[in-house]
């Protein structure tokens, strides 16, 4: 494949072919990097992605589905914190400040995801709410649900990262944006956990808590898992580590079906 | 494709042929320069070694480069918390040392796990053991320890967030995702110790609700002051 020949031919029907690439310097840099690897086998993929960007067609349905799934969870969280603030039981000062900050982020995530889906010519989901019948009457239990939502969010984003590999919105990596949301959810989760007197990270024992928390930490790969990439972290590393430290050192994924199960976030959304 | 159809229906689109040869020529000039530079680079580098270049110890390229990059940062964090636990700040508050012992264990696990994965899963050579330079940190002072911890944790989160897109192997991306959220939990904890409520404040989360993401070269530049060996992240993920 001779990319220069292809571009030459394209320029005969499209005089602006070079202008279509988001940045000429980026194109030349990428060309150089590709050539450097000597990865001829990868060249067609590279060229396809180059032209996919330049002549940006519709994004695949599966990517829109993933973004709408994330948006559903963000709408659920946003509405939950709106209800929590409206219930007016959050103590003034640090607790109220934290809940307001988290609500602000969830609202920003809703807007960002909706705008991105629209820009990719998809249709953003709307109207997803936290089921009022499930909203706790007291502040203590409201915090329990907040922890359930945040730790679920962390696991949910992690479960979808693979589906966003290599996916772009213009010059923006959708995967990177998802990761940037994901770590904010983890910061929220850590803070809510400490508001409840819990450790900011997830000990193995959380997987056996009663609902609504317990199911958040279970699943095909529970948070109590101590094996990564085939390594039992308590036995196979040069230094032995405790099961609690090994479990807490890694957060685990939840699949979409697991997240949307009635025992988890799926049971809270209407 | 619609743009092509539009321009072919537009006489004006064909009325600018003069621009085409110019653009084409400049394109081939760039292409020629790139090819030349590439040949030079190829002749000057071997793929598998931790080669020491004038820019420092290379972390490598492709997925292995990303794994080595993470391994280098985890070495730094693990060494820092090992020192925190070994000589705890004299003014730590109740419970803080216990939590830092847990954080120290998490980081040591990340370090040991990444090294094992690079050797046995990626079948590659891990970057050498690094020598930390913690001469600027006052380990007896809670404030100094917390501020350094905040720097390391926020940097670690931004590093993983920025490097994920360079991974080609989905399984490695999952591993990076499983680690980064724990780093974010550490970051939130340390920030709250410094100032309760700063776990995700406006200094670290932007108006779109996004945490920071940094490129490998920028992260290594920021971390370099704490490492005696000079590191080169220029080819990480490339």
TrEMBL record, chain A:
Origin superkingdom: Bacteria
InterPro entries per record: Ferritin-like, Ferritin-like_SF
Pfam families associated with the record: Ferritin_2
CDD domains: Ferritin_like (cd00657)
UniProt name for this protein: Ferritin-like domain-containing protein
Organism: Hymenobacter aquaticus
UniProt lineage: Bacteria, Pseudomonadati, Bacteroidota, Cytophagia, Cytophagales
From TrEMBL, chain B:
Pfam family, one: Ferritin_2
Domain of life: Bacteria
Protein name: Ferritin-like domain-containing protein
Organism field: Hymenobacter aquaticus
């Amino acid at each position: 494949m001779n990319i220069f020949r292809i571009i030459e031919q394209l320029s005969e029907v499209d005089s602006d072919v070079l202008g279509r690439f988001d940045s000429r310097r980026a194109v030349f840099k990428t060309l150089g990097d590709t050539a450097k690897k000597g990865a001829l086998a990868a060249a067609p993929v590279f060229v396809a992605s180059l032209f996919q960007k330049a002549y940006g067609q519709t994004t695949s349905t599966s990517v829109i589905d993933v973004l709408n799934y994330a948006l559903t969870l963000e709408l659920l969280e946003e509405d939950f914190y709106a209800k929590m603030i409206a219930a007016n039981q959050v103590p003034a000062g640090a607790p109220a400040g934290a809940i307001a900050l988290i609500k602000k982020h969830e609202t920003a995530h809703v807007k960002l995801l909706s705008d991105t889906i629209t820009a990719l010519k998809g249709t953003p989901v709307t109207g997803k709410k936290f089921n009022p019948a499930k909203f706790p009457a007291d502040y203590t239990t409201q915090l329990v649900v907040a922890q359930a939502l945040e730790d679920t969010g962390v696991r949910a984003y992690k479960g979808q990262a693979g589906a966003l590999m290599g996916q772009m919105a213009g010059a923006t990596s959708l995967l990177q944006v998802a990761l940037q949301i994901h770590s904010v959810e983890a910061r929220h989760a850590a803070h809510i956990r400490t508001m409840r007197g819990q450790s900011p990270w997830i000990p193995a024992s959380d997987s056996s808590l009663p609902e609504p928390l317990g199911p958040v930490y279970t699943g095909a790969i529970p948070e109590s898992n101590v094996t990564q990439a085939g390594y039992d972290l308590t036995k196979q590393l040069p230094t032995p580590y405790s099961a609690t430290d090994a479990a807490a050192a890694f957060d685990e994924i939840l699949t979409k079906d697991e997240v949307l199960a009635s025992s988890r976030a799926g049971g809270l959304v209407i | 494709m619609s743009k092509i159809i539009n321009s072919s229906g537009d006489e004006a689109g064909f009325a600018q042929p003069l621009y085409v040869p110019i653009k084409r020529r400049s394109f081939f000039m760039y292409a020629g320069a790139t090819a030349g530079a590439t040949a030079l680079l190829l002749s000057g580098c071997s793929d598998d070694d931790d080669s020491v270049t004038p820019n420092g110890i290379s972390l490598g390229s492709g997925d292995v480069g990303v794994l080595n990059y993470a391994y280098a940062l985890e070495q730094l964090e693990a060494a820092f918390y090992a020192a925190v636990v070994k000589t705890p700040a004299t003014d730590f508050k109740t419970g803080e040392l216990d939590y830092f012992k847990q954080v120290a264990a998490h980081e040591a696990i990340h370090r040991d796990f990444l090294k094992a994965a690079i050797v046995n899963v990626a079948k590659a050579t891990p970057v050498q053991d690094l020598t930390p330079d913690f001469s600027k940190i006052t380990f007896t002072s809670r404030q100094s320890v917390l501020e350094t911890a905040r720097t390391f944790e926020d940097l670690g989160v931004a590093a993983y967030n920025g490097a994920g897109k360079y991974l080609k192997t989905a399984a490695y991306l999952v591993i990076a995702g499983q680690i980064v959220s724990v780093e974010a939990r550490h970051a939130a904890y340390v920030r709250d110790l410094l100032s309760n409520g700063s776990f995700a404040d406006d200094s670290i989360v932007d108006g779109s609700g996004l945490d920071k993401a940094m490129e490998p070269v920028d992260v290594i530049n920021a971390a370099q002051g704490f490492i005696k060996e000079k590191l080169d992240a220029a080819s990480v993920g490339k």
